[in-house]
Design goal:
It is built from 14 helices and 5 strands. It is of the alpha/beta class. The protein has a domain of about 80 residues: Conserved hypothetical protein from pyrococcus furiosus pfu- 392566-001, ParB domain (Alpha-Beta Complex). The longest helix has about 55 residues.
């Protein structure tokens, strides 16, 4: 009996990056896209420039070998290279990639959530880094850094942990700190369950919070704002109802106008027949009068203005579109 055939061994996976960074002259780096002048005026460019000036290059650019020996294409980090060039650097350490894939770096980006950013700022200040240096490194104002350092003041750790990996607007934490800890946890869970982490939804949860679940200062403010909140809620309900009515009118107005225009045209042609007019005079005189009123309308807007004297609309012309009725 022959031995079973062995399956061929699979080749080991090819590494996507070199294990060591290489130092490359900036003049030997070739950009894969055009650098526009507007790039140097954007906020992101200024933040990267401030960071490199304060703490140096944190993340090396990613390059791949070009067809010319000793030269490389810039796969990721074009802005960093432009900033280094502006600051007078002649060489930069780069990560060498085996593929010229520029899609992955721009598609799979992990934005730092506000809670994690707050924790990093607090840890940096505890280690002795002054807020001024942090503001300079991040390209932000000192007031913004101080606000982010105090962002979680008054928010319980359980609610902060629930929102730790989410992109939360800073205004949500200002609303949460007006609630007691248990209500903060409930509000965070409701926002996550509804997938709606917004300032508007947070204010709605605050408005629905009882006085016993608010901190003393917020409780005092809530008593003053109860009437305003109720009035705003009533106005929002009325506005939503008005929008729904307007949408319904928009949907049916066009077909209705078309049908009425066709009906008016048909009545005009019908009243042009002497035999039909003679029969209506003899048998349905009241129908003839109404048909003539409809046929004499120059437009539906004029008919609406006639029915509602206060409404503005085009004036009807003096000419009648209906032929005269023959004598009975």
């Amino acid at each position: 009996m022959s031995a079973p055939a062995r399956s061929p061994r699979k080749a080991p996976p090819r590494p996507s990056f070199a294990r060591q960074c290489v130092e490359v002259a900036i003049a030997d780096l070739i950009p894969l896209k055009t650098v526009r002048p507007a790039l140097r005026r954007c906020k992101r460019y200024e933040q990267i420039r401030s960071s490199i000036k304060a703490v140096g290059l944190v993340e090396p650019p990613v390059v791949c070998p070009a067809t010319e020996p000793g030269r490389y294409y810039i796969v990721d980090g074009l802005v960093r290279v432009e900033v280094l060039k502006e600051l007078g650097f002649s060489r930069v350490e780069c990560i060498v990639s085996s593929q010229d894939d520029t899609y992955t770096y721009n598609k799979h980006i992990n934005r730092l959530p506000p809670v994690q950013e707050h924790r990093m700022l607090v840890r940096a200040t505890k280690r002795g880094v002054p807020a001024e240096r942090i503001a300079e490194a991040l390209g932000l104002s000192l007031t913004t850094i101080r606000k982010r350092l105090q962002m979680m003041h008054g928010v319980c750790p359980e609610a902060a942990e629930l929102l730790a990996d989410r992109q939360v607007p800073l205004g949500v934490f200002r609303v949460l700190r007006q609630m007691r800890p248990m209500r903060q946890i409930e509000a965070a869970e409701l926002m996550l369950a509804q997938a709606n982490i917004s300032i508007r939804f947070a204010w709605a949860l605050l408005a629905a919070t009882g006085p016993d679940q608010l901190v003393p200062d917020a409780n005092h403010k809530q008593v003053q704002k109860d009437s305003v909140t109720q009035e705003m809620a009533r106005l929002e309900r009325e506005l939503a109802s008005l929008r729904e009515q307007t949408r319904t009118v928009d949907e049916v107005y066009g077909p209705d106008v078309l049908q009425l225009t066709i009906a008016r045209t048909y009545l005009r042609s019908m009243l042009g027949s002497a035999a039909i007019v003679k029969w209506l005079l003899a048998n349905r005189r009241e129908y003839l009068q109404e048909f003539q009123k409809i046929a004499e309308m120059p437009s539906l807007a004029a008919a609406t203005a006639k029915a509602n004297p206060g409404a503005k609309g085009p004036r009807p012309s003096g000419r009648s579109a209906t032929p005269r009725s023959p004598p009975a």
